[in-house]
Amino acid sequence: MPDGGTPAPGPGRPWHRGPEDPRTDTEANPLRRPCDRTRARWRAGLVLAVVAAVVCGVFAAQALWQGGERSAREDARHRHETAAVTLSRATDPLTGYAGPRPAMADASWRAPDGSPRTGRVDVPPRTPRGDTVTIWVDDTGAVTRAPRAAAEGIVVAVGGGTLLAALLSCTAVGVVGARLRRVERHTIEEWEREWTRVEPLWTHRRPTEPGSEDV
Question: What SS3 class is residue 14?
Answer without folding.
Answer: coil
